[in-house]
Amino acid sequence: MSQDRDDDVDTRGARDSEAAAVPTGKAGRADTAVAGRVRTDADKPEDTRTARANPVKYLKQVVEELRKVIWPTRNQMVTYTIVVFLFLIFMTALVSGVDFGAGKLVELVFDR
């Protein structure tokens, strides 16, 4: 293949992707092109636009979402805590064992 063939490559795809790339908006985030125009904050649903302007409404929405959470029971929390502690003990023992073994190996190799 010659160098001339590489120059003849169709670049329409590259131009299309460049056209889709829209400069960054005021807030430092990239806006997206929608149907030939740039999407702005005005295109967002009302509740997401006003969350910044109304912190009380935002906190009420947070509380509503937290009420939907299925919280673990006391027995589940005790079980999960025990599992985590056992895992930590196991991993600590494993890392300590590998560290001790590697240290002994280095001593053997370098005849300290």
Tell me about this structure.
It comes from Dietzia cinnamea. It holds the Pfam family SecE. Residues 38-50 have a biased composition (Basic and acidic residues). The protein is mostly helical and 112 residues long. The model has no long low-confidence stretch (mean pLDDT 76). The protein is built from five helices and two strands; from the N terminus they run ααββααα.
Give the gist of this structure:
The protein is mainly alpha-helical. It has helices at 3-7, 12-20, 46-53, 55-68, 74-110, and strands spanning 33-34, 37-38. β1 (33-34) and β2 (37-38) form a beta hairpin.
Blueprint (SSEs and pairs):
Elements: H1 3-7, H2 12-20, E1 33-34, E2 37-38, H3 46-53, H4 55-68, H5 74-110
Antiparallel strand pairs: 1-2
Family: Belongs to the SecE/SEC61-gamma family.
Biased composition (Basic and acidic residues): 38-50
GO cellular component, one term: plasma membrane
- Provide a count of the helices: 5
Query: Which strand-content bin applies to the residues?
Result: under 5%
Main β sheet profile: 2 strands, antiparallel
Distance between the ends? 62 Å
Strand adjacency order, main sheet: 1-2
- Class inferred from helices and paired strands: mainly alpha
How many DSSP E strands?
A: 2
Spatial shape: elongated
Order of helices and strands: HHEEHHH
Low-confidence stretches: none
Average pLDDT score: 76
Oligomer: single chain
Fraction of residues in helices? 55-70%
